[in-house]
Amino acid sequence: MTIPVLSAKPAPAPARHLDNLESEAIYILRETAAEFSNPALLFSGGKDSTVLLRLAEKAFRPSKFPFPLLHVDTGENFPEVIAFRDRIAKQLGERLIVRTVQDSIDRGRVKLKTPNQSRNALQSVTLLDAIAEFEFDACIGGARRDEEKARAKERIFSYRNSFGQWDPRHQRPELWSLYNGRLDKGEHMRIFPLSNWTEIDIWRYIEREEMELPSLYYAHERPLAVRGKNLVPFSDLFPAREDDVIETRVVRFRTVGDITCTLPVESNAATVEQVIAETMVASLSERGATRLDDQTSDASMEERKRAGYF
Fold this sequence. Notes:
Structural class: alpha/beta
Strand order of the largest sheet: 3-2-1-4-6-5
Strand content: 5-15%
Order of helices and strands: HEHEHEHHEEEHEEEEHHHH
CATH topology of the largest domain: Rossmann fold
Number of helices: 10
Number of domains: 2
Helix content: 25-40%
CATH superfamily of the largest domain: HUPs
Largest sheet: 6 strands, mixed
Oligomer: single chain
CATH architecture of the largest domain: 3-Layer(aba) Sandwich
Shape: globular
Distance between the termini: 55 Å
């Protein structure tokens, strides 16, 4: 009997690394489908959730996904990202559920302190209401441990109590990649298949898979309000202040969250390869460099997560 030779030449280390991350994420997605009766995948149109969609395709195609896509729209998201979200969901032929913070405001579930208050942190209420409405027992998201110190405390299967609250001191052990998905009524789990990925891993995977992203991730000219060290985007929904100095800069976005709290960085990186090169030498994480709410919010990320924030 002749034993076949699998490979005389091993794959390059970066390729093996991405293969391992991909394999782990696919395993987590399949475990989620097996352990939970009614999961959902949070899809915003951002780079991390778009990578999750590609992984879900590899995990479940040619079948349909065993979960719908869910997005909580603050009403102040970048229009380019919303258009991308809708187009990709339609191309995949998957069900997209959208719930809005504005609806929560109209129903009195959320109250704005000022008319121009950022709605980003307020989406926790809308998310928890959507979980209750559809009785989701698990929500899959694209958060990564390298983004922010509170997210570094997350388990891959992150338990939430019947109030949707997270307590980092009461999470379940995950030895040998064994995940405990048992829940009582009203409780749910947040699932993070990208926990062990970094920002550079995401971009290398996007490069390898030749994935499309919203154009905001690449260098483009944009009028911005200059406020000290910050370059602040604005739109018809979130106009500039009367005293703002407006300048046109060449920038790109490292994250594409709510327009009220997402800052661009000056950049000429117009291709995936150029973004990777730029990211390799960045001294701050994308949230640390570009999320205004992390810089100015009275509540830390951990406090927001304890109250239901993703």
